Each structure stands twice: as C-alpha cells, then as structure tokens.
Predict the 3D structure of the following.
Amino acid sequence: MNSEPDEESLDPEDWPQLRALAHRAVDDALDYLQQVRDRKVWQPTPAEVLARFHAPLPHAPQGAAAAYQDFRDWVMPWQMGNTHPRFWGWYMGNGTAFGALGDFLAATVNPNMGGGNHVANEVETQVVDWCRQIVGMPPETGGLLVSGASMANFVALAVARNQATATDVRAGGVASLAKPLVFYASTEAHSCLQKALELLGHGSRSFRKVAVDDSYRINTEVLTRAIAADRDAGAQPCAVIGNAGTINTGAVDDLAKLAAISHREKASVLFVDLFIWRFRISSDLARNPHLGLRLES
C-alpha cells in the first residue's frame, strides 16, 4: 500500500471553474466602477455587517465561490467612497479601471523586485525614467517606486540624513552621530514625516513643527530663528522640508526662500514633499534651476 501523501499544489482543483469565477469577478468589478455615479458616495457600515468580521477562526475552507460571494455581500458595498467622483473627504486617489487590471496582471507574474535577471526590473526603470522626463530632470537622475507618499518621505528623510553628516549612519546608527540631528517642516506637514523620523531612530523630539503664516505656508522667519536656536543648543540642523501642496489646504511653501535658507545654513538639506501637486510643481521646479532644489520625494 502506498503511504505517500498526495502531492500538494497551489494550482486550483478545477481550472475551468476558476476561470468562470474570474470572468464573473472582472464583470462585477467593471460594473461597480461604471455604475459608481448611481450610488451614494458613502454609507455607514451596519452593525450586522461589522459583526461578521468578529467571527471565530474557520477550521475548514469555504471555497473560492463562497469567499467571492462574501466579498460581494459584505465588503464591496461598504467602502470609503474614494472611487466616487464626488468624494471630497480626504486627499487620496480614486484609481482607474485599467489600474485595477494592472494590479491583477502584476499579481499574476508576481515579480520579486529585489534583483535578478527579469524584465520587471526594466519596467520599473522605464517608469522612473519617464517620470524624470515628465518633470524635466537631467538624465543622471535616479529614483525608485515605493508603496506611496509616506514611504517616499521615509526614504527621502533617510537620504537627507545620510548626506547631511560625515558620519556613516548606515554603519554606526544614530548613536554614532556627534550631534543630534533636527528636521524642520511647517505645522501643516503630513504626519508621516514625524513617524518616519521615529522609525529612523531620531525620535519625535527631533522634528521641529514651524508656525505658518496667514496663507498656511511655513513662516521662514520663525524657521530661521529655530535653526539658530538649535545650533546654539548643540544640535545639527539636517533637513528643511518644503511642502508643495499640503493635505489640509494645498498650500505651497515659499520654496525659493527655503532653498536660500538651506543654502545659507550649508548643513541643511532641502527636500520637497510633493504630496499633492506632484508632477505639476516638480516640473516647474525642474525648469527653474536657480531655485537650487533637488527633488527627493
């Protein structure tokens, strides 16, 4: 008698059945997007729906068809509403139908972007270079694709930190710094900046939230005084973060003044958070090299 267990596989047990379910899912998804204007922007999730997400751990599979039906019944109708053209609750993308198909195709080939000889790396390089050309940056400009603006700012702060000091922070960590580093942004800056500094090991106390003027732009006089006070206290100013469209009001800081302050302070790096007006403003900056800006995010 053969005691060997059956071979396990990640393949579906019934390819035609899965294909039919996939076609149904695509049709439902496209209908959902096409008919978005016929629905309310948002509706509160009923208590009975919320209760379904506190169920105990299942001990047996329910099958793909049943799982998909759960999605249609209990997930799809109760969304934030950002796919609706009248969603004005927060700043976030609404996505596109083709973008959804793109996610499906990307998940199908499931590339690991950490290296290797495969064309997905070339796709990323091409997209980054197209973005460079859109904003008019020089050919030697580099970049990478990340999960979103919060991670872009995290990477930008790490780059700014590593370039603003002679200490090899990547090797020795923040404990190897001769002086504590401080970072500056307006009180209107996105909360991801403080979180990034906490995760990078600098702590929230390293983040100076500078007052704004009547137009919700960073007050450059207050900023200048803050930098001087930190130097007198033995800290090293590291980065001035300019906002090119804040989340709350879309305010754009006086980037020319911030560039001049950063240049005068020498030890300060200026990077611009292009959270909202990303391509439009970065293109304007690239066409005005006299501003002395290097776009990091």
Q: What stands out?
A: The chain has three domains: 16-52+65-109, 117-144, 147-291.
